[in-house]
Design a protein that fits this description.
alpha/beta, Rossmann fold, seven-stranded parallel sheet, 9 strands, globular, binds ligand LGGBLMCM, binds NADPH dihydro-nicotinamide-adenine-dinucleotide phosphate, fatty acid biosynthesis, NAD(P)-bd_dom_sf, oxidoreductase
Length: 256
């Protein structure tokens, strides 16, 4: 993507940047001149990612569970001390597991809501209060999922991501006059480390359920994120961009 140095020396935070989609987002920002902080819960994973990313530009990591408000404030303090500002937040960290609603324990439901809805809100509010509202400038991109027709088989994450989809619209308006833009990217099925954790029988042949007959790549998602964070999208806010090969419009994601 030609971005004409749009991200030169911009400070970018990518949650869950140690693997998969988040790793590609971090790499693309670095390649386009940004300084990037990646976060996650697993230090070894983050260190390995830094080793692979450091040739592309200035990148550091912080351990931060997005469900832990104290850890999020510590992360904000780290960025404030190191850079004095934050330009772009990518809320990519998240995850869930397949389960029919009837089999979900209350704790299983809560863990997925916490991970994908509450964690995203905690991170967004903390970074807005610490940086964006004071700066009167900021750009937020939330990674959600294909929830266009609901998410049968993963109703917990469907509910959580629909919450983030709507939060994106609300905050786009609440913060529009403060120079803050917020959009979302909804990936379809992406060939990534995350997908490797799903049962084989669910994933086998899944590309056939995608109209374009292939899975997306982590770079496909990263390109959409960079577009929304770039000046090319300066008049776009409160929007969700589907990166799904048309899947939201056609058939089932997986057989129940
Ligand atoms: C095939 C189509 C794919 C569709 C496209 C989507 C793809 C992706 O999003 S891939 C990328 C995402 N990566 C992941 O999803 C990572 C894998 N998931 C997780 O790491 C976890 O599921 C978690 C983060 C969502 C939950 O972690 P945590 O809160 O630490 O969970 P606990 O181990 O404490 O368990 C809490 C609660 O949840 C139940 N549970 C956890 N995993 C499963 C499971 N695989 N199946 C059923 N139930 C599960 C667990 O049993 C606990 O409940 P209780 O037993 O009642 O206490
Ligand atoms: N791959 C796909 O087909 C799709 C993916 N998505 C979403 O895209 C995002 C990236 O997924 P993908 O790259 O595929 O999968 P990964 O599992 O590789 O990435 C998820 C990342 O999030 C981090 N993470 C998860 N929970 C937390 C938490 N509580 N606090 C901090 N970090 C956390 C993980 O790091 P660590 O383990 O170090 O905490 C990991 O780096 C996720 O939100 C996912 O649900 C949505 C639709 C489809």
């Amino acid at each position: 993507m030609i971005l004409q140095d749009s991200f030169q020396d911009q400070i970018v935070l990518v949650t869950g940047g140690g693997s998969g989609i988040g790793f590609s987002i971090a790499k693309q920002f670095l390649t386009n001149g940004a300084k990037v902080v990646i976060t996650g819960r697993n230090e070894e994973k983050l260190q390995k990612a830094i080793e692979k990313l450091q040739d592309a530009g200035e990148v550091t990591y912080q351990i931060c569970d997005i469900r832990e408000q104290e850890q999020i404030q510590q992360l904000a303090d780290y960025i404030k001390e190191k850079y004095g500002r934050l330009d772009i937040l990518v809320n990519n960290a998240g995850g869930q597991f397949p389960s029919l609603a009837k089999d979900l324990s209350f704790n299983g439901w809560t863990s997925v809501i916490n991970n994908n809805l509450n964690g995203t809100f905690y991170m967004t509010q903390t970074m807005a209060n610490t940086f964006f509202l004071e700066q009167k400038k900021g750009n937020i991109v939330n990674i959600i999922a294909n929830i266009f027709k609901g998410f049968p088989g993963m109703s917990h994450t469907g509910a959580a991501r629909a919450g983030v989809d709507n939060l994106t619209k609300s905050l786009a308006i609440e913060w529009a006059r403060q120079g803050i833009k917020i959009n979302a990217v909804a990936p379809g099925i992406i060939q990534s480390t995350g997908l490797e954790r799903y049962p084989k029988e669910l994933v086998e042949g899944i590309a056939k359920t995608v109209p374009v007959n292939e899975l997306g790549s982590t770079d496909d998602v990263a390109h959409a994120v960079l577009f929304l964070a770039s000046p090319y999208a300066k008049f776009i806010t409160g929007e969700t961009l589907y990166v799904d090969g048309g899947q939201r419009l056609w058939g089932d994601v997986f057989t129940l």
